[in-house]
Amino acid sequence: MKTGHVCQLLRDVMSLVLLFFPLLFGLGLFPQVNTFTMYLLEQLDMHMFGGNATCSLGSALYCVFRSCVAVIFLYGFAYGGLTEEKSSQHILFSIYCGLLLATSYHLSRSSSDPGPILNILKAQLWVPEEELAKTEDAKVQPDDDPLPKKLQSTVNTRLKSDLLVCTVIAVVVFGIHCSSIFTALQPELNPVMGSVAVALGVLLHYVIPQLRKQLPWLCLARPVLRHSHQSHFEPHHPPTVMWFEKLYVWLCMVESTIVYPVLILAHLTSDSSEISSNIGPGLAALVITVCGLKALRSAFSQPHDQFLVLIFAVLIFQVDFPHHSSTFLVDYFITAIALNKTYEFLLKVQFVVTYIAPWQITWGSAFHAFAQPFSVPHSAMTFLQAALSAIVSAPLNPFLGSAIFISSYVRPIKFWERDYNTRRVDHSNTRLCSHLDRNLGADDNNLNSIFYEHLTHSLQHSLCGDIILGRWGIVRQGDCFVLASDYLNCLVHIIEIGNGLVTFQMRGLEFRGTYCQQREVEAISEGVEDNQGWCCCEPGHLPHLLSLNASFSLRWLAWQVTAASYVLEGYSISDNSAVSMLQVFDFRKVLVTYYVKSIIYYAVGSERLETWLESPVILEALRPTLNKNFVELDPVFNTNIDEDYDLRAAGITRTSFCAVYLYWIQFCNDKRQQKLGDTGKDSTLNKNFVELDPVFNTNI
């Protein structure tokens, strides 16, 4: 009867849920079908196969499909090796180890977006007539956005590189494993490699990132390992690669490509026989394939968490609960999932405690003062809710003035489900008659599009390299960063991090003058080192250290400053009246200087620059400028409006021109894909601009 009552109760509850489902769905308590499917596939690929986050439902299906294909492909070799007498020392198992490492390396370097792969297949297998017509039109009208072509070219190059590298990896690992070195060095090999992995992990992913943070351990007032540009008010060059960045990259490469592969392959060799004897070769082949694939892919894609997984796997299953251990491979697999959920739970608890701490309460309203004390008895339920939301990876949102927290529906890491692709309006994509009727590019949306596109392109060129160099600290999938400057702020959401690839979103562009931008800049640039407090008194603090009050207050923030100085190529727009610009001589000089620089920029960036420099007609016209005493005496030049005007020569000389524009010419040349070798004062390129300078000013 009791069982019948329970079943009837469950039936009644399900009936009520189904009846109220439209209302609950309307309140946002349940996800859409495509969102839930994407979330489920993403969680399956990440926790089962060691994959990365996905960007859409199609990419999630693609990632799970390729992971399953990889497991099926490797399963046969593992099963063939385990069914033989030599088991893990059979040649089939050696082939399996080589293919496992090569496959894991390739999958870690593959993006979740199948678009570039499909484009390559289309280009190689068939080219329809319509595509040929589009290609011919593209040759006549070049695309104004070269980045998709660069991305396609990069993917193509990576595939060719992976084909070569994976072949070498498979052959080398096969040869090493056939030599029985993994068996001969047991049982010392596993603990030694584990100790090396833990030591490297602590150094690379804890000590060095803390030393490079803006406030190391929230105790020091400035970073210990600093960039050379941090002392500059306004850097003029891209940041140089420091010695500690080179050391960091090399050690990370050693860790992810040597230490962890050797450790995982050693445990594969030693544990596969035991797993096969316990559950049979058929199921054992599947278990070691899934566990080995996840461990190796995680070591390539997310090496910053592996030393923690290794430490807790040893402590839990070899020290605390040795009777529950099921070989190191299975223990490592389970610990990786548990550690991921535990880390998410700790973040949610920190978020809750930061909001409800008594000294954090601002008492901004009467309701807040009333609701906050009544929420204290429900703190246990809040933490339980945080645990449940961490298990299912659901967001935890403050509600009713941060007095209550509610869990939203489950979402993938890319929680912004809709893509807002901006598109600017200018002469390259709209008709001239539209601009004559009304100024299409003067609205705020178009200006936002220009900034979004430029910042996105800048990050696409530099973000992955900066993360590899450790300039963003320890970056995990799902992290959000605020890039703040005196002129604009934006939010960068990291979606996918692989072995040499990053997928991100940029949102929340805010310009100077808005309240949010002002408060963010003030909070980030707040000088905490000036705080002299120690509890209720102000005795001061030691040099380059934070006071007790400052260190305590920083630990109760929901964010941290990763770097106070980060160099990124930006964009600026100035809206000035032409009347005021042309009435004052100083403004005229600035206008003429920028006009000449703009023409230099487009001339140096032209694909026909080499043809112009080799043209006999142009070289013949430049012959008079070869004289060292050459002076351009065109009466259009004036000392009031030309910054490169030479008063002693009463005109423009090569020396005066180079003193103003040579640095800009060299800078533009550095941005070219094919740089010109000679850009000095006597170069042909510089002579060209000296000769064309009168034309520029005459047009002005």
TrEMBL record:
Coiled coil: none annotated. Keywords: Membrane, Transmembrane, Transmembrane helix. It is a multi-pass membrane protein. The chain crosses the membrane at residues 20-41, 53-78, 163-185, 191-208, 247-269, 275-295, 307-323, 383-410. It is found in: Membrane. It comes from the Eukaryota. InterPro entries: Pecanex. GO terms for cellular component: endoplasmic reticulum; membrane. Belongs to the pecanex family. PANTHER family: PECANEX (PTHR12372), PROTEIN PECANEX (PTHR12372:SF7). This is Pecanex-like protein. It comes from Panstrongylus lignarius.
